Amino acid sequence: MEGPDPPMEGSKSTGDKLLTNTRVVRPEVKTKVLAKLPFRTGTADSAVWQGFAGSVMLTLGSFGIGWLASSSVLIRNPLFILARTTPVAVVVATVLLCVGAVLIFRAWLRLRQHLAGWGPDSAAVLKKALILWVIPMMFALPVFSRDSYAYIGQGRLMQQGLDPYTNGISALNNYFLLGPDTMWTEAPTPYGPMWLWIEHLAVMLPANSPEIALIPFRLASLAGVILLFIYVPKLAARHGFNPNRAVWLAVLNPLVLMNFVASVHNDSLMLGLVVAGIYYASAKHPVVGILLVTASIAIKPITLIALPFVGLLWAGSQAGWLRKFGLWAATLGIATALLGAMGATNGLGFGWLAALRTSGTVWHLYAPVGLFSNVAGGVVSFFGGTGSTVTSGIQTVCVVISILIVMALAFFKISPQLSTPTGETLDETQRYSQAVLRRMAWGFAAVVLLAPAIQPWYMLWLLGFFTVTGIAEGWQERLVFYLGAFFILIALSDQISVFPWIPLVLIRSVAIGVGLLGVLYVMFWDRQTRGLFMPRRAADSVTER
């Protein structure tokens, strides 16, 4: 494991025991560590404002290629007409969006360099960065995804007394004017009762405008980010890790802000609630923890995975099987009763369970199961067989395997042997909490990695859970950097909204070209950041200074 960067000016001396995710740098090795550091100029404040500029550019770019409903009044606005119907303006918007995303990514990396000591003074810088980077995105048109327009359609189903667990958005008259992805218009709603209430509230707002209806979803996404900002550092500190570094890694991460705030995803509130819940469960407030995790399930039921691990936290490290099974039953009972009450209130019961069984048709080339199952199915079809059966069969087997892995992680004996990077002594409860939550993180990882589709925001679940149980500097942190670069490129090149007379191939090529050049520059040519991706070049960067 590599040693950390030495503190920057204004932080504590290297002799202090800072809570970093690696060993403390001793004075006698300071010179050796310095030789590994990337070149630094400027201040943390300059990185904050660089990220703000990137956020503004991303927002401006969204006006040209972000998602707008066909019924939006903005389409008739002269400025939006210019931005969205003129090929040159659309190209400029694409460049703005991509450069803005790359600037945020670079600013985030520069913060890591300037705040390498992660002293108490870094908390104010991180808070300022979060505020300045989020505010512009709150005014962006949805980018990288148009799920928010599907939320509006599902709210309309509720408004018209239709069951969203058995009806797709296509049951609405002129549903296409709402702007949802046509791929999902026939599918039932896979969300829980609490999210349905938010969707219903959104379409009840006075103005009959999709943009007004998006406001509750934006506020819900913001609430999720705020919950992460509060509880990620609390959980990290509880496990002996620096809370400020945890905020930088799992909250200020560009993927988090772009996919939760700019894309207006309900995963933000789901993740914020489950992180808050596991914090209280680990802090010996199990009922509060169960209520918050249940609220998360009522947003998006994937967090059902967290319930058995919340039960383990409640049982404690010395619990026998009788106590474990008893508290697992109590955990499930409380969650079921609360979800049942919600279902009775909206009259839909546990309809979301049936919706969860709806097979998806989306798969990604970079998802191992998606690639393998579809290639296998294609080969079988080529030789005259039923390829779709093979594809769905492989995917079903992988789902079953992921469930078995989660069960095994919950049932196998947990030995709390993890330790803090500083060697700080934690009590048994803290070490047990760290071990349980690391098991939970691997459970979510199994579900994500064995799925045929891996959306960029799925990776954010794993980022949050692994951060609060320890992502070390060195190769683990670099893996986050590389994955961040990859999924930023995926987002920039994926969902782009342009009018039919503007060549989509051209706009997508511009997005891929600008995004790829920007990310590669940050990774391999920028003297100030390339050492974070290639440690061997960090010493060259210092020499160049």
Q: Main β-sheet: number of strands, strand sense, barrel status?
A: none
- How large is the radius of gyration? 24 Å
SS field, number of helical segments: 23
List the quaternary state of the chains: single chain
Structural class: mainly alpha
Q: Percent range for helical residues?
A: 55-70%
Instruction: State the separation between the terminal residues, measured CA to CA.
Output: 26 Å
Shape: globular
Residue ranges: pLDDT <50 for 5 or more in a row?
A: 1-41, 541-545
Q: Total strand count, please?
A: 0
Order of helices and strands: HHHHHHHHHHHHHHHHHHHHHHH
Estimated share of beta-strand residues: under 5%
What does the average pLDDT come to?
A: 85
Keywords:
545 residues, mainly alpha, 23 helices, disordered N terminus
Structure overview:
This protein is an all-alpha fold. The protein has a domain at 1-141 and 472-545. The chain has 23 helices and no strands. The protein has helices at 30-34, 44-65, 78-85, 87-114, 122-137, 147-159, 193-203, 210-238, 243-250, 254-262, 267-282, 286-297, 307-315, 321-346, 351-356, 368-382, 387-411, 428-449, 458-467, 475-493, 504-525, 530-533, 535-544. Helix 4 packs parallel to helix 21 (504-525) and helix 12 (286-297) packs across helix 14 (321-346). The longest helix has 29 residues, at 210-238. Mean pLDDT is 85; it is low at 1-41 and 541-545.
Brief summary:
63% of the residues lie in helices and 0% in strands. The chain has a domain of 215 residues.
Sequence-ordered SSE layout with sheet pairings:
Elements: H1 30-34, H2 44-65, H3 78-85, H4 87-114, H5 122-137, H6 147-159, H7 193-203, H8 210-238, H9 243-250, H10 254-262, H11 267-282, H12 286-297, H13 307-315, H14 321-346, H15 351-356, H16 368-382, H17 387-411, H18 428-449, H19 458-467, H20 475-493, H21 504-525, H22 530-533, H23 535-544
